[in-house]
Automatic annotation (TrEMBL):
Transmembrane intervals: none
Ranges for domain Putative restriction endonuclease: 11-169
One Pfam match: Uma2
Lineage: Bacteria, Bacillati, Cyanobacteriota, Cyanophyceae, Gloeomargaritales
Protein known as: Uncharacterized protein conserved in cyanobacteria
Organism this protein belongs to: Gloeomargarita lithophora Alchichica-D10
Amino acid sequence: MTASLTQIITVEEFLKLPYIEESPAWEYVDGVAIQKPMPKTRHSFLQKRLLTEVDSNSKAYTALPELRCTFAGRSVVPDIAVIAWNRIQVNEVGEPEDNFIAAPDWSIEILSPDQKANRVIDNLLHCLKHGCRLGWMLDPDDYSVLIFAPHQEPNVCRGICQLQVLEGVHLELTAEQVFAWLKIDKR
């Protein structure tokens, strides 16, 4: 179950709350702080593998787990935020700035059993409205990937359906291949 604080606050007030970086992460949507559900094992397996696959198949982008992205009056924490290297701000010593204040290029969410799909879709649509170029919502119970792209109808991919990725990410995946990562051979 996700926790939420129903007191209406500003995004600036939200970002000053002492507990928002606790695990699981807190997000800020429509004036309310909402805690994401704790990831389960299948979620973690998919997240780990997707991070590895995106990173190993692109020089232009990096895949980051649970990165807070604060922009356009909302603060979201996608399971995976894929960001072009040239969009990552660095400080005077060449290290990345701690606060990412834009939409990721590609937002990937993995639906947890206790998570509301519409809340996740709302965050993905918000990202797309503000510059994100691709959104995925993986549903491990349905073995499907719901894909969002600007100015296109959402597309549900199952089985051998090829999954859309960002240009510059040299990765060919089907929904079937992604969910096959959940099969564990214990030999």
